[in-house]
Amino acid sequence: MTRITAVTDAQANAAQQALFAAVKAQLGMTPNLMRTVGHSPAALEGYLSLNGALGKGILPVALRERIALTVAQLNGCDYCLSAHTYIGSNIAKLSAEEIKAARMAESSDAKTTAALRFARAVVEQRGRVSDSAVQDVRNAGYSEAEVVEMVLNVSLNILTNYINNVAHTSIDFPVVTANS
Question: The dihedral of CA 33, 84, 101, 144: what is its sign?
């Protein structure tokens, strides 16, 4: 059962309406995550700003979606697993096999696997990764800028995982669970 409700269009104040309209213009819908975070327009604006900035970064969408899947699996966030499975498949064009592999911090591509294992280490070690973890991702061919963006993508996904896990956000994508 949902513990923090999603703000409906009828309930939304002017600030919330403007943010929801911007999300809908980009995605064609306003997901329940945005409507839940939207209880605080400042929080939603902050989330959207960081998400937008990282979308302009150097990490490709396919890697960002894989990182989201890795992090959501580790944090047991069914909402994010559902959303990023959908986005990974329909926007990033990841195969079902790559989506399943990403949930386990794996890929058929060795360089991608290195990034996902680094992301997993960031989550599991709460950012206190070993020197060898940083060196491994660098040895795979990632620049310092890419490593920084990986950490920020992990952090952004932890933020959404935590709000969804606290709120029990109602899933408005085809449902995927951490146990499936």
Answer: negative
Residue 153's closest CA among 27, 91, 69, 92?
Answer: 69
Say if CB 70 and CB 120 are below 8 A apart. Answer: yes
Cα–Cα distances (Å) from 108 to 20, 43, 111, 116, in that order, read 37, 36, 9, 12
The amino acid at residue 125 is Q
State mean pLDDT over 95-117: 98
What is the widest separation between alpha-carbon atoms in the chain? 52
Distance CA 143, CA 158 (A): 23
Structure tokens at 101: 């592999």
pLDDT digits 0-9 by tens, 109-168: 999 999 999 999 999 999 999 999 999 999 999 999 999 999 999 999 999 999 999 999
Q: Residue 66 is encoded by which pair of tokens?
A: 């894989």
Instruction: Using pLDDT thresholds of 50, 70 and 90, give the confidence band for residue 62.
Output: very high
Tokens 């060795």 found at: 110
Terminal Cα distance for the chain, rounded: 20
pLDDT above 90 (res 180): no
The rounded distance, in Å, linking the Cα atoms of 29 and 20 is 9
| pLDDT attached to residue 145 | 98
Q: What is the DSSP letter of 59?
A: S
